[in-house]
Amino acid sequence: MMKQWIAVLLTLWCLGAHAEDQLCAVVLIEIAQEATFERQGFEATMRINNGLDSVALSQLKIQVSFEDDSGHVVKASSDPDATDASFFIRLDDSQNVDSIQSGADGALTNGVIAAKASGVLRWVIIPTAGAAGTSLGGKRYNVGASLSYNAGGKVESLSVAPDTIIVKPQPQLTLDYFLTKEIIADDAFTSVIEPPEPYTLGIRIRNSGRAAAQSVKLESSQPHIVGNDMGLAINFKITQSFVDEAPAAPTLLLDFGTIAPSRNRVGRWLMESSLSGRFIDFSAS
User: Fold this and answer.
1) Which of 57, 123, 188, 252 is the 20 to 30 Å CA partner of 232?
2) Closest by alpha carbon to 218, among 39, 40, 80, 37?
3) What is the per-residue pLDDT for 18?
4) Which domains can be identified in the chain, with CATH numbers?
């Protein structure tokens, strides 16, 4: 799952006859959005049976390892910002394994399995965009593990025979936002209340990967004011949404469906503001 948060700065422009009469206010709004699409992932499961009647297995340590088809070690990390990793690995579930801790390299340490108990560990493994290599058929990897534990003062170590996975080409999405600059609505410096005119917050999603992106959806919240130092009486709202100029469902969710490789899909939200103004800055992270 990929998440986007949008922060927009709005400055109310001023219509005073003289510069000294002008009063400008800065309002910061945030629009939280969540983008989702299907992508390839793997699940790894390890079951450890402690057959000892009265001795717990302590100091359990497990390291999942990855090698390419040539036997070269490739990096996996539990840090999603590790740009040099070929795989993202995360412990997704554990049963009957106490005190287990996860490290940045995906290693698990300090686990405890009680006497006569069976511990189960499950990992989610997600390949990065480049892990499939250059072949349309994908790239093969061997995934194994090493583990050690303390059984009543005696340390034991063993290796788990690797299994084979094939990483297929994946989609790679880029989101570009577009926003109307000049906003027409009520003029704060006149006595007449002018009606707001809708404006567009647009999105273009490009798939630059070598596989189609399936079930692409982008859900938005309503704008939320997070900064308004001068207490300006203003509000913002999204009133309608479109996908490729076709009206979307009466929600804030844009359902793009499938985006083929080297293709774009576009969508937009119609917004309204209660006061005229101008967007002076836009950022998404």
Assistant:
1) 252
2) 37
3) 41
4) 2-38+171-284 (no CATH), 42-167 (2.60.40.740)
